[in-house]
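Weekly structure sync, notes
Attendees: PL (lead), two postdocs, one rotation student
Agenda item 3: pending single-chain targets
PL asked that the sequence for the first pending target be pasted directly into the notes so everyone works from the same version. It is reproduced below exactly as submitted, 502 residues in total.
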Amino acid sequence: MSIRNLEYMFRPRSVALIGASNRLKSVGATVMKNLLAGGFEGPIMPVNPKYEAIQGVLAYPDVASLPQAPDLAVICTPPATVTGLIADLSQRGTKAAVVLTAGLDAASKDGTTYQQAMLNAARPNLMRILGPNCVGLVAPRIGLNASFAHAAVKPGHIAFLTQSGALATAVLDWAKSRDIGFSHFVSLGNSADVDFGDVIDYLGSDPATRSILLYVESIKHARKFMSAARAAARNKTVIVLKAGRVAEGAKAAASHTGALAGSDDVYDAAIRRAGMLRVYTIEDLFDAVETLGRAKPNMGDRLAILTNGGGPGVMATDMAIERGARIATLSDKTISKLDAVLPPTWSHGNPVDIIGDAPGERYVAALNILQEDDGADAILFLHAPTAISSSLEIAEAMIPSLNTMKKPVFASWLGADAVVEARRAFMLAGIPTYQSPEDGVNAFVQTINFRRNQESLMEIPPSFSSDFTPDTDAARSVINCLTSAPMEQISGIAQERISGSS
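Predicted structure, written out during the meeting:
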């Protein structure tokens, strides 16, 4: 694992675009447009002998004509040209390149692949390469958009690393609709040089990155990946969406990235041991960021459910049991306290159904009682809108109590227009909020799994095997003989005694 020269890739002071173009809808034109629109403050130097200027910027015919060696070069030219360009850039002193070009697995004239020839050309100057066959990278905090993605990226504290270019653009679109920003957005492509381990190691020390999200199809260098992931997971949230869980998916991943996906059980165990959290959908990926970023620490798997309707409580109970959580058994003391503040028709158990006409005060009273029950580790709040009580008024009544609670609370406002203001009020107050009961339960389970994985991360192997019993008599005998024997006999005596005691 090496972060050597990665600062030139993720914090360049100048960029050259090799293959820049004025041709509409071409990769060269799209990347140039993104570079100019991103707000990058350093020089942007397009290279293409066919143009005097590209999108209003003076163009250069070749790498040798550039007025300075760029920190970062972005290449989107045909496969046969990439090796020569890398050699020219390396000779000029460029330290990093993003190779968007696909098809480098084809054989060059000397029989090696274009990809291997590219790596050979980069090696003398320790030039780092992202790709090939990638969408590029975005570092919004410095205004760098060296990609052909279709959507602008706002600054944030999440880093997203992906092996899939198609998923990269889809996630950007998804995140934009939810006003989610990124510290880095990196499409790894074929990972010929820079791979997951390198980037995770770099981001682990980046103060602007609080969470690292991974879309993984395959890992080429397992030891490097595990070392980087374990180090990063000690102080950042690392969340993994691993594709290729079944045989057919693994086969598709192999054809996509060029590497075997391997056994999913192995990946699952490795992710847990490294202190990362595994999720299974794109939506879960970003829900997990909100959950782990906002929820109070969770120390157990017993869930209390507070609801104004029986149906949502039943749905949440089913989901919790299916996902391996437990429904908390309320103490007699808690039941008695709830009896004193709730209507006689309440459910008298967990889920705590406080009836559909519940105002905010009833929610607050029940919430405070559940908070004191030692048999519940967390609380799931569910609300279905009614014509009797205003959802926003209920939210405003609950927020002060929720902000002072020690136990984590997960909220789900069921519905759409009738609860949109209440949901927004909770989100602005920093309370983890979800669309459905199942999403709320899933968030709770994510905190359980994350805590367990973090505990595994901190485990230290024993210094010796638990079934090992030292033979102190044999050791003492060896020491006694050595103290009285001549130096030339020491080695033979020690070997003889050790062999005899084994």
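Discussion points:
- The mean pLDDT is 90.
- Residues 297 and 408 are 7 Å apart (CA to CA).
Action: rotation student to compare against the earlier draft before next sync.
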